[in-house]
Write a structure and sequence with these properties.
single chain, 227 residues, alpha/beta, four-stranded antiparallel sheet, 10 strands, 33% helix, binds adenosine-5'-diphosphate
Length: 227
């Protein structure tokens, strides 16, 4: 399980007119979940996009196990990003959706089937592999979105407001589900949210972001008991 480090990481847009991320330092320990908590526009998504490789930093560095990854192309970084809106293909089955990331990487069919079965089992979707995504409920859809990322076996998992499109009941179920996943697969996770309860319930530490900066990092165990 790797360690992830952000070193004076910054991103400007429009020749510096917009400072989206303003030199942040953060060290995520192996197997740790850190929540990035902050209001809309504070730079959370930009931070994740730089880690996964969708955006290049203006300055600073990103290390996985001490190695800089900023020059490694997105598909080869071993970092998985789960988007806010599911990015699940509605007319494809659960199996096809889960297999997608491996099919585009041209993995062997046997390997794909094995990886998909394993992830489906892990997510409690083993009996739903032939259902079309459009016929799934909200939390099942979210499981598929997470599963699509997990099949590629990322060492670092980034979750961008993964529960924000769910109804309250489904959100509770998925919070429990995510906690189980954390303990079963032991990934290093950054979890972006603007919801304090979610951050408290899922993260080991919370990094509070505001206007492109990390204001403070606290252990959730210090703040309160897990809700
Ligand atoms: P959050 O995820 O916390 O809502 P973002 O990372 O999306 O915040 O955005 C941080 C800031 O950067 C915002 O002010 C946003 O408007 C700006 N921003 C994000 N992407 C771009 C872009 N491609 N061009 C210009 N400004 C951007
Ligand atoms: P989030 O808060 O989840 O980042 P946004 O609605 O802020 O969602 O941004 C959606 C997309 O628009 C992102 O890809 C972001 O990079 C881009 N974006 C955000 N703000 C701006 C902006 N001021 N100019 C150009 N692109 C932007």
């Amino acid at each position: 399980i790797p360690k992830l480090e952000l070193v004076s990481l910054a991103k400007e847009y429009n020749d510096g007119a917009v400072v989206a991320v303003d030199g942040i330092d953060l060290c995520v320990a192996p197997g740790e979940t850190i929540a990035l908590l902050g209001p809309s526009g504070c730079g959370k998504s930009t931070t994740l996009n730089m880690i996964v490789g969708l955006e290049a930093p203006t300055s600073g560095d990103i290390h996985i196990d001490g190695q800089s990854i900023v020059n490694i192309p997105p598909g080869k970084r071993n970092v998985g990003l789960v988007f806010q809106d599911y990015a699940v293909f509605p007319s494809m089955t659960v199996r096809q959706n889960l297999a997608f990331g491996l099919v585009v990487r041209k993995a062997a069919k046997d390997d794909i089937d094995r990886a998909v079965d394993e992830v489906a089992e892990l997510l409690g979707m083993g009996g739903r592999l032939h259902v079309r995504a459009r016929d799934l409920g909200g939390s099942e859809m979210q499981r598929v979105a997470i599963g699509r990322t997990l099949v590629t076996k990322p060492a670092v998992l980034l979750l961008d407001e993964p529960l924000s499109n769910l109804e309250a009941a489904a959100r509770l179920t998925m919070r429990r589900e995510l906690r189980r996943l954390q303990s079963e697969i032991g990934l290093t996770i950054i979890y972006v949210t603007h919801d304090q309860i979610e951050a408290l319930s899922l993260a080991d530490r919370i990094a509070v972001m505001h206007a492109g900066k990390i204001l403070q990092v606290e252990k959730t165990s210090v703040i309160c008991e897990r809700p």
